[in-house]
Amino acid sequence: MTGVVTEAEIAEGLGSLGLDSTSSVLVHASLRSFGRVEGGPEAVCRALLGTCGTVMMVSGTWEQTGVPAPPGLVRPQNTYYNAASWAAFDEELENAVPFTPDLPVDPWLGRIAEVMRLGFAHERSTHPLFSFLAVGTHARQLIEAQRLEWPLGPIDALAELGGHVLLLGVGHTSNTTIHLAEQRLGRSRFYRYAKVAPQAWAELPNVSGASHTFDEIEPELRPVTAEVRIGDCRARLIAVEDVLSCATRLIVADPAALLCEDRDCRCGAALEQRLAVLRG
Ligand SMILES: [Zn+2]
User: Fold this and answer.
1) pLDDT in tens, 138-194
2) DSSP β-ladder status, 36-37 and 123-124
3) Residue 118 alpha carbon to ligand 1 centre in Å
4) Ligand 1 mean position, distance from CA 264 (Å)
5) How far apart are the CA of 208 and the centre of ligand 1, in A?
6) All structural domains of the chain with their residue ranges
7) pTM for the whole structure
8) How many angstroms is it from 197 CA to the middle of ligand 1?
9) CA distance 127 to 266
């Protein structure tokens, strides 16, 4: 089953999904999902950039820039942890680093985004926790759409461009666009905290929450999903607008759609946020 996948085969697979130089895509990718890639993550990046006009990825730095909530700062329905004392908070703040454009992408977001950052001329937004990077025709326009108070702005801009979500060997649990649909409906809007300078921290609104049950959207999206195998990688392409409209429809019909039932999970807090909107 597992063979070696080449850059040409990846490009061919992307082309068979309908992608071309007019396409703008938000890519969520697992390098391992391909099996072995000849040329490694650089080859995946070259195939993406050689096929699509604009490639965007999440390039968050949460593990390096994030800090706990300070002692006593408890927002309602926020599901976050506080430092046990100011001494503990100051120690966490000391250990964190402020965002700079040359910070590596957090490893849990995948190796491909980090290789894109290292090896290719890109634009990168500057959100302290949740930056995006983009390469190609519309890169600057997408990246400039991020605001400190609205981190998923680049996905709004991608939707306006008629862009697509490309899932390479990952599920909808990685599909950040579903969070945008939630946030537009007042759900999954959390406050989180980051170091922004030596001894200085900030509270950042509208940071999205849990996604661990997002694969429940799969059957609903199947009619509008293009799918192909590239080596062992299951590659799926869906228009951003289709993801947004489908997730919106599900959440409007059921405030608890795509959330788990654990009241202590961030899902429970997200549900409460939506219910508060419905109560007006
Ligand atoms: Zn949950």
Assistant:
1) 999 999 999 999 999 999 999 999 999 999 999 999 999 999 999 999 999 999 999
2) unpaired
3) 34
4) 8
5) 13
6) 4-279
7) 0.97
8) 33
9) 22
